[in-house]
Amino acid sequence: MIKNNFSIQVQESISKIDLKKIHEVSKFLKKKKSQIFLAGNGASASIANHVATDLTKSAGFNAKTLNESNLITCLSNDYGYENWMSKGLEFYSSPSDIVILISSSGKSNNIINAAKFCKKNKMMLITLSGFLPNNPLQKYGKYNFYVKSNNYNVIEATHLVILLNIVENLIS
Questions:
Q1: pLDDT per residue as tens digits for the range 118-141
Q2: By the 8 A CB rule, do 124 and 99 touch?
Q3: Residues of 3-14 as b/e, b for ≥16 C-beta within 10 angstroms?
Q4: What region does 112 belong to: left with phi over 0, alpha with psi -120 to 50, or beta?
């Protein structure tokens, strides 16, 4: 029998998801029904795109990402890569919006600067991170989902499961 260590790690990670917190976030989102912005880098950006589509199509939210190449390159060129997300939020969001930031490490400068923007503007922030239990991103969120792993794929798979659990709660 061949053991798939990745599958085992993902199963263990998923078994540790805080379902009570997912329910609390879902309840909050249903009540608030605000516009939602999701952001991440790399695979986390893909997760943000996937979940924004599901939140819009299936759950009836106005959910968006800033993942347009022309916008990313423009804002990165004019304000620096570390500031493109915060500038995007500055241009497109309002204080009543909800922001979901996804970062495996929880320490990407562009994500941290977006989190600081949310805090400064008193925006509701939900974070998803991994690697270090006290990573910088967790300081900023009202709701923080931390995945205890050092494996990007395990963290990303678990982040997707967490967010899709929220979507399922919103549509049921």
A1: 999 999 999 999 999 999 999 999
A2: yes
A3: eeeeeebbeebe
A4: alpha
Sheet with 124-129, strands from edge to edge, namely 63-65, 36-40, 98-103, 124-129, 143-146
Helix, strand and coil in the chain, % to nearest 5 = 60, 15, 30
- Ramachandran sector of residue 143 (left: φ over 0; alpha: ψ -120 to 50; beta: rest): beta
pLDDT of residue 157: 97
Does residue 126 contact residue 101 with C-beta atoms inside 8 Å? yes
Cα 171 to Cα 26, 32, 56, 85, 129, distances in angstroms: 10, 15, 11, 28, 25
Residue written as token pair 């009543």:
96
Question: What would the two tokens of residue 11 be?
Answer: 């199963």
The structure tokens 């990670």 sit at 13
- Residue-range domains of the chain with CATH: 19-171 (3.40.50.10490)
First-last CA distance in the chain: 39
Question: In terms of residues, how long is the chain?
Answer: 172
Residue 103 DSSP code:
E
pTM, two decimals, is 0.95
